[in-house]
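Z., the sequence and structure:
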Amino acid sequence: MAKHFPLAIPHAAPARFVPGECRRSDPHDPPSAPALHQASIGSQRRRTAAVSSLIVASLDPSNMVCYRHFQLRLNIAQRTFNTLQRLTMKKLVIALAVTTALTGCLSKEVKCGDESAASLVHELITDAATKGMKDEKFDDGTPMFESAKISAYLSQIKSKLTAVRTEKNDPDSNKNFCAAEVSFTIPTTLLNDGDALRKEMNQSTSDQMADLLKIKKEANVASMEITYSVQPTDSGEEVFVHLDNPDTMGKFLQFVTTSVLIKPIIEKQRAEAVAQQQKMKAEQAKAQAGQQCVDNKVNAYHAEMGDDAMITNDQLQEWEGECKAM
């Protein structure tokens, strides 16, 4: 699952070349100014060799920290090399500065621990929790939980990344592959209210659910190890994050939040059940009172007319009507 994050990156002005910049080690540093000067007083072949050495060193990916878009650099370097062969020493130095500026970092590198990456990790996990809760339906197909209430409760849960590591870099792009521990801090009242309800209903608590999902839970903080990748777009205006498994922590947040969201629904159902029971008892009591009323009329009739006196159906219906009206 991936998310992107808008990232405004201003275009940097071309910078003066600094020998040794953008490198991991310096065995291949580009030739210094004295070396260029030495090449300028030699033959055309020596000047060409110096230029070739400089361009090859500037393109060597083993030296570059900000190495990106190697093919583009190679094309620029080739065109520059052809131009340099026809320039004087003064023009050579100017062209070298332009080449260095163009072959610099073409887009901002996004690090594993950048705020934009952490924000998108949080969003991916809460999106997984949100989807799970929105999928909950009543028997008639209507949503069980309101979207606004889901968002309101999830917004109270905060996250952070710790122990962030860059596991590898993609040499053909500006993508970083990362690992970290993500921690979610859940409001204590939210956690306790949900656990109290589930205990009352003889269901699993948040501690038991955390154990089931293999999530580390201490007090009101739940954490787990995650792996993800970060990469800016070519324009550098957005960041994309791919999280390998957002569902595990997403299920835990869904469990915690659902425990609170479902409480008013359960309370409403309980109130309706109590009202229904009371209504049934009242109807039963009324029915019993009505039958007792009819029985009393029957007994009074037999007492007056004798035990063998016939009671017609019309008489019974009349007495039942009188008893219901009472």
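Residues 247-305 form the longest helix (59 residues). The radius of gyration is 39 Å.

Let me know what you think.
H.
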